[in-house]
Specification:
alpha/beta; five-stranded mixed sheet; about 15% strand; globular
Length: about 220
């Protein structure tokens, strides 16, 4: 059924001539001291934050994470991010995206590594691969840097200087703990555990009032 829905969706979005980008969940790797739920949650959180940051570029059309999640489930590809280029390209074509971003993360000795690649959905070719690493405390900035490197590498429209400055401000206001908790709330919401997700978003906004992503998620859930 979802395939039937995705076909007209792709046709509708094809009328938008901006480059379309879809982002898959990032494959969870090592995360010392974290349990499996937290590692899997972070794979979703990295995906959502990257989607949000890419969406700040109005010259791109970024596919909503919910649509990607439903397609991955329908295609029985899982949510781990461990998907080859061809099925990745197929998912992208179904949602009318020209490019798909995929990758994974690891944390070793207080250094966070984000590896990924961007795939051309028309040819299934990996156009660019990249790795960004920095101190684990700079998690949000790592995600921003990763997204900018990939899009710059395939010459997608760039952010303005003002938009880059706004990105830097968001990175400064997004401590690692807030990002991890936000990721866990996203996973709870995906699992249909709405009340728990809403409560966690409230905790994040109380503890980290400058972290706007949690406040926006709470507003969308009708919990503001």
């Amino acid at each position: 059924v979802l395939c039937a829905v995705a076909t007209p969706l792709a046709a509708q979005q094809a009328q938008d001539n901006r480059p379309g980008v879809a982002v898959l969940p990032f494959a969870p790797g090592m995360l010392p001291g974290a349990d499996r739920d937290t590692r899997e949650a972070l794979s979703i959180g990295v995906q959502q934050i990257l989607i949000t940051e890419l969406s700040s570029n109005t010259n791109l059309r970024v596919v909503d994470r919910t649509i990607v999640r439903e397609l991955l489930a329908e295609q029985d590809l899982g949510a781990s991010g461990r998907v080859d280029a061809e099925p990745t390209a197929r998912i992208g074509r179904m949602v009318g995206a020209k490019y798909v971003v995929m990758g994974g993360y690891n944390e070793i000795a207080d250094v966070f590594y984000l590896d990924g690649r961007i795939v051309d959905t028309e040819t299934s070719e990996v156009l660019r691969s990249d790795r960004v690493s920095d101190k684990r405390t700079d998690l949000y900035r790592i995600i921003i840097t990763f997204g900018n490197r990939l899009t710059d590498g395939v010459r997608l429209p760039a952010l303005t200087r003002e938009q880059r400055q706004q990105q830097e401000a968001r990175a400064t206001q997004a401590p690692r703990e807030a990002v991890v908790l936000y990721s866990m709330a996203q996973r709870l919401a995906d699992q249909g555990r709405t009340d728990e997700a809403r409560d966690l978003y409230r905790q994040i906004t109380d503890r980290f009032p400058s972290y706007t992503h949690a406040r926006e998620a709470l507003r969308q859930m009708g919990g503001s």
